[in-house]
Amino acid sequence: MPRGPPPQIRNLRRLRAFLHIRSSKMEALGGYPAKPCAPRARLLALLMSAAVCMGSLYLLHMKLAKSRKPRDFYSFEVKDAKGRAVSLEKYRGRVSLVVNVASHGQHAEQNYRALQELHRELGTSHFTVLAFPCAQYGGTEPGTSRDIEAFTKSAYGVTFPIFSKIRIMGAEAEPAFKFLTDSVQQMPKWNFCKFLVSADGQVMRFWRPEEPIEEIRQEATALVRNLILKKRSEL
């Protein structure tokens, strides 16, 4: 009886058959798989992808931050004496005199009465005083915001808005007030500094506490007059 091929030949045939089957399957799938990347190349690709993603996120963040940046005083939100959020947008279209106030300072009565007279004289349709209590100047505003509001109404007949107590100096400075001080490059040295803000929210002038109210009245009146004339021309 004839003997079969030796084991070496049989193994070689099996290997050829296996490779043939393997080749046929890969051709059916569209060719041989690509050679895997080296670990270093894969790491470099990952790092580059991460860098691109981080760069894109940073640019997006900067774009969003820029779009949210308040463009004027009336773009800010503050709190009223009861702690409720108030958008200063409600005062856009009016001239505002913004003041850091204190109820128990040496010149409190004189300033409050002068501010109330100006508020009444120029009319609330085109002008308003906006008062921000602050206790950072000599501790002359010790009460709560509600106490301050009630006291100024009863003692000085105040009808203009009294907002929540704020900080003007330091890291916790009220952003709306910081906008004022940054705009004029002036920091209040004491209570009753005054900032004149136009109807479109731009800071026009700054006065120290000792400067006469008559000068403030003249400039505020001129702004209000121009505002009225502008509104009439647009009718």
UniProtKB/TrEMBL annotation:
One of its GO terms (molecular function) is glutathione peroxidase activity. CDD domains: GSH_Peroxidase. One of its GO terms (biological process) is cellular response to stress. It catalyses: 2 glutathione + H2O2 = glutathione disulfide + 2 H2O. One of its GO terms (cellular component) is endoplasmic reticulum lumen. PROSITE patterns: GLUTATHIONE_PEROXID_3. It is found in: Membrane. It is a single-pass membrane protein. The chain crosses the membrane at residues 43-61. SUPFAM superfamilies: Thioredoxin-like. Keywords: Membrane, Oxidoreductase, Peroxidase, Transmembrane, Transmembrane helix. Belongs to the glutathione peroxidase family. This is Glutathione peroxidase.
